[in-house]
Amino acid sequence: MAETCHYCSLMIRPSYVRLILVAAVAVLLAAALAASSGRAAAAASAKPLAGIIVGIDPGHNGRNADDPSFIDHLIWNGRERETCDTAGTETDGGYTEARFNFKVATYLRADLQRDGARVVMTRTSNTGVGPCVTTRAQIINRAHADVAIDIHADGGPASGRGFTVLEPVADGPNDRVIGSSRRFGSDVRSAFLSMTTMPVSTYDGVDAVAYRDDLAGLNLTTVPKVLVECGNMRNATDAALLTSARFQQEIARALAAAIIRFLGR
Ligand code: ZN
Among residues 82, 95, 87, which one has the least CA distance to residue 61? Predict the structure, then answer.
């Protein structure tokens, strides 16, 4: 009997040990899962732009110059007729404004998405034609963006430097977002001054602000929006900055900071 019992206990004991081990592993796994999902929830709720929609319009497009009949056709910009778009400007070295605009937009989209925003872009490559400036405004309006930015670089006089924030003028469709757009413009201007090395424009606007009633993107907007000319591609000093990936990322960070500040996040 003693031998049998001894035999039994030997058989039973490992299964108890297995049970205890399985239970312990299950408890540890459950605790780890709970902790990680708690951390994920905390991280999601900590993202400053969670629940926000941001519109980004990278001006022009890489192939606009190849289709003049489309790009030159006239559209109604809310106040007058203008062409669907233009090819934009470029540096003396041939770096196009369309490429610069798209690079900054792509960096900005990544920054905003990291902060929890949903981003709506008016174009998703730099190898196409269009869309027209009217369509770009519609894309952002229909997305009901909380705020939007038109990204450009200027083709000013070669001796002139600096950035300018172009702000809308009331014309009907945009009436309800004039005040908020100007507040956002002020945030963009402050962020450029504190977070980039680009100076205020020496040739456009007053103290880096210009009010414009001739641009479809601003005339037709129903969401708070400004257009930023990030620098002058025709000026050698500005061009050296504008074509550098590091500076493009610096601009994107400044714009993201301006958006977060504008939204009070
Ligand atoms: Zn432009």
Answer: 87
The verdict on 17 and 116 lying in the same domain is no
- Shared-domain flag, residues 82 and 39: no
Instruction: Measure CA 120 to chain center.
Output: 8
Whether residue 113 has pLDDT greater than 70: yes
Q: Indicate if 53 and 169 belong to the same structural domain.
A: yes
Tokens of 234: 């025709």
pLDDT tens column, 172-182 = 999 999 999 99
- Report the SS3 class of residue 139: helix
Token pair 């969401």 is at which residue? 223
Residue 183 Cα to ligand 1 middle (Å): 22
Together in a domain, 37 and 53 = no
Q: Spot the catalytic one: 82, 167, 229, 250.
A: 229
What are the pLDDT digits (tens) for 142-165? Answer: 999 999 999 999 999 999 999 999
**Is 229 among the catalytic positions?**
yes
Going by their DSSP bridges, the two strands 118-121 and 209-212 should be labelled as: unpaired
**In the block, which residue shows the tokens 């005339």?**
219
Q: Ligand 1 centre and the CA of 127: distance in Å? A: 16
